[in-house]
Structure formats: C-alpha cells, structure tokens
Fold:
Amino acid sequence: FDIERARGLSDVLVGEVPPEGAIVASGVDKLSVLPCGTRVTNPADLIGSKAFRTLIEQLATRYECIVVDTPPVLAVADPMLVSEMADGVLLVAEANRTSRFALQRVVENLRRGGAPLLGIVLNLMPTGGIYGRYGGYYYRHYVDGDHGDADGARRGGSKLFG
Structure:
C-alpha cells in the first residue's frame, strides 16, 4: 500500500498517539490500515497488554472487520497472543517452502490455544510449467498415489508442502 510507517500500532499502545492519529487510508475503498509503527524491543509485551485488548475492542465498534497481520506463528509469541482475542485465524503458508511438519505444529498450537482456525491460504503457488496450473499438481498428486490416505501420510503426505 506504500504507507509510511512513522506512526502506528506500537505508538498507539504506548500512548504516544491516539488511534485516529495513526490509522491511514489505504487507497482501497473502505479499507483503513494501522501500520506497525515505531520498532520496539518488546512487541510481545505490547500485544499481550491490556492496551492492545482495549484498542481491538474500540476498533471493533468502528470497523466491520479487523485483520491483524502477524509474524510467523512458530517464530515469535505475538501471533498466539493475537489468536487468543481473534474471532478466527486464517493461516498463510508458502507453497513448496512451508513444511508439512511446521504446518501441523502451527495447527496443533492454535487448537491447543483455543484459536478458531478458519482455513489456510497457500501463497506463492508456481504459475508456470507443467505443474503451474492446478491441473498439473492434482495430476501428479493422484498419479503418485499420494492423496491423503494412510499410506500417503506415511510417505510424507502431500508433496505440496514437502
């Protein structure tokens, strides 16, 4: 969105600026953005704070939908803290890079934390070559006999994540 990062969420949470002073128009109709703001050394502390919970509650009265983009779930604590307040979690995984094992761990962690998992978005799918369109992937997937059955799971499951 080419949005300046000068003021944002961290600045709101430490009380340096009100939400109205940090929320910016995205250029897309009916879409506002609250950038991350000034870098802090303790982002998990801010996300786990009463101030964050209060901010989300305030914004929920003004916006139809709030989407919080977090760092990778297995990398830091922030995503799990956010998931505790979420009505739903949409997990994003990179095709041909995110391992099936990592994805399973994330799903288990989210379930253990009580996060309502809405689904998984697979991004950066290859678009060229023989497997570039879904037909090629599914052809390879089923011809190899790896289509989610017990034997397929023992061989490593879906090649999409492995």
In short: The chain has a mean pLDDT of 79. Strands lie at 24-25, 32-33, 89-94, 117-123.
